[in-house]
Each structure stands twice: as structure tokens, then as C-alpha cells.
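It is worth pausing here to work through a concrete case rather than discussing structure prediction in the abstract. The textbook approach is simple: state the sequence, then state the predicted structure, then interpret. We follow exactly that order.
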Amino acid sequence: MLRAMKKYTGRIAVTVNVLIGLATLGLSFSASALPLFARQTGQNCVSCHAGGQFPELTPYGRMFKLTGFTMGTRVTVPLAVMGVASMTKESTNGSIDPSNEYPKNGEFSFTTMSVFAGGKITDNIGLFGQWTYNAYAFGKNPNVNGNNTEFSGHSGSDQFDLRYADRFVDANRDLIVGASLNNNPGVTDVWNTFNSAFGAVPGYVPVSNANGVAGSTSPVLQGLGPYAAGKNVYAYWNKTLYAELGSYSTANGIFSFLSQGISDANMGTKLKGENPYFRVALNKEWGAHSAMIGLHGMNVDVYSAAPDTSSPTNNFKDLGIDGQYQYILDPHMVSAQFSYTHEKQSYDSSLVDPTGTGAAPYTNASNTLDYLRLKGTYVYQAKYGASLGYVDVRGSADSNLYAANTSGGFVPNTTYWIPEVFWTPVQNIRVGAQYYSYTKFNGASTNYTTNSDTVTPRDAKDNNMLFAYIWAAY
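Step two, the predicted structure:
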């Protein structure tokens, strides 16, 4: 199916020529963010966001996005701002020098700030544009163990979604058609199930060299945000059937403004040519309820030693299923989401070392990765909320690709839970806390490390992390 989608690249490229021209116009108008859209539509934020939690959309919010952010009246100053202050607390077990290896552990500090611009440009054109300053973008002055003791900030373009949309309604049909120029596979998705972060806010204070929450291997579909330029077309029929086709290339050249501030010479990931993406969904709305079941997928060729485009390429095929249920009737909001993505990774033969001696990045000619996410949320009066997320990552063993643990598994298998509580005293301020609880990390529950720099072995639970935040937007 994914290979067959490549034939659509030419058709999508026609739409891109229009959107590229509009991008410059869109940037001059700037626009977008929750308060900006609220001012444009005259609606409260909870009209678009389920229980007021970002980024999950209500049926009304999905229609607003599908119609190109054009509902309502264009505002005079199409800008909004958002800021986050946060604190993370993680175990320092095994650290030789905790003050250097975990320099911001337990400290509450300013994390990120974003400026949003866009909204309605014309009756058919709208924009969601985001520019973000990350106070902990880069580490500097590493100590002898390679851990960062100081950090510097950086600003750059963030999420971008410029749309053209039209709607055709009569007694027998309700059809929306549109096109998008964007910089992240899945940012166009109106159900936010398979490529959006858990929790209410972005950004983590870097408490360790891993720059925040302990990482787990994830499908390539979730990691292309800073590097991709997408040209997508979509249709939504009778609020029931949704279909989207897209093509993604490296965000350089004419698309460099989509690269989230990363120069072409510094891109750690580069896509070869055009890479097809698809998303289909079946949606049902009745009374206070709505439900969706869908499929998503992408076929990506990535240079193995980016930014060097003369290096061999590896292929990643992602195919997944996802779903969502919502019940929204004041004062209650209940939602549940799931997504499962299966990825097949195939490597250039020059990068494979079957002997497992470490002479090449991979032992196997191909590997698989399975990524499962579940989340349930309850919000009362659009003020008091709680959610529980679950992530399970499993993959084939590869002794060159993955680190060893006490069981010698050489696998990426990681499992963790994310409970969260939050309070929204007013619609543009949120206070909350998440807790990341690991039951398995890199294939083991206990003693997963083989790093000689650690004093004592780290267990999966040593990556458990408390993340507290204050989020505000205007």
C-alpha cells in the first residue's frame, strides 16, 4: 500500500506550488494558538479542546482545523503567546557526580516560550504557525563524563500547518477538501492519537545528559518533526470518512523555513527524495459521544550519515492502527485513545555486520519495532483533570544497535506509565504534574546498564521522573 502511494507524489506537488507561495504570505500574517483561535471564533477554549486540554480536539475543534482555521472573523492582531515553567526530579542512582550529571534536577525554572501566528487569512486559507524559544536547547561545557553542566537557549520555527480548505454542503452531502503545507507527519491529524506528546504542555528541563525524560526507541514517523516538509491533500465526507495523502522531503532549500531552526549543514536526519504518508479514519458522532477508528502509515528513506547525502540510505516502513472515544457533556469530559504502530527497518548492506563485532551499526539486515500507546482522561468542569498514559515498546534484538543489559537481550523493550493531574483555574492557565513510572527500560527491569561510568547499576525505576509545570497562554 505504501509503495503504491508514491504515484500520488506528482499530484500533491501541484498543490505544493500554491502553498509555497502562500507560505510567505502566511508568515507575514502570522497566526495561531488557543487564545488566538478563541478570539477569532468568539468561543471558549473548551469548545475546541476536550476538557480544555491541549492538543486533543472536540468535534467542533476538528471541524475548525479541517476547514483551514478559517471559522470566525479574522482578528486585527493575529498573535498569541505561551510560556511554560517547570521542574523535573529524577533518581541520581549510579551517578559519579550528581551535581554535574543532573545539573537541573529538582530545580523549578522557565523552560519554553512560544509565539503563535496565523488563524484566518482568507475565507479559504488559514495558518497554525509556532515560533518557540527553548531555554535548554543546547548543552555546553561538558564535564569529563560528557555530561552537560550548562545550557544555552535557542529559538526557531516549531509546528507549522498552512491550509487551503473548501466545504461543499447540501441536503445530501457535507464534503470538506483541503491541502496542507506542514513540517511534521501527524501534525495535520485532527484526532491527535499517534504523533502527539502525552500531557498538557511541551518541554522538559534537562535533568541529565538524556535531556529530560528517559528516552525509548520510537517509530521514525514520530521523529521527523524538525527535518520534514510535508505536502498533503485530504477529504472529509459527511463527518464520517476521512482520507489524507502526503509526501515528505527534507526541510531544506525552499522549505528551509520549516526546519525548526536547524540549518541544512547540521541536520541529523535527512530524507531521500519524496516519502509517502497516508491516514484514513472512520468517524461517528452521536449526541455527546464520538468515536474514531483509523489507519496511518509512512514509507521513509533516510540517509544513514546525515547531513552527508552521499551516505547509504535505510528504509523505514510504518503501519499502524489507532482509535479514540470522547464523551463531552458539561460538566464531564471523558476520552480514551490508543495507537499501535509496527515498523520494519531495512538497512543498506554496507551498514550490516552479521558477526556482531560492532564494525557496523547493525547486526541484522532488518529489524522490527512495535510501539503501543494508551491514554484515558477525565476532566470535571473543564478545571479539574486526571489522565493515565501507558507506553510499551518492543523490538527485535540487535547487538550492534542496542546496548546490552544483565540478561544480554540487546533489545529496545521499554514500558512505562504516565499518571497526570492538572488544574485549570482559568482557561489560559494550567497547573499540573506528571509522573513517569518505568517498569522496564532497554530490555530489563533491573540493572540495565553496562556503563563503567556508573557507580552502581541503574534499574528501570531509576528513570522514574516527576514533572511539575505551570502553563500560561494569552
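Step three, interpretation. The chain has five helices and 16 strands. The longest helix spans residues 9-29.
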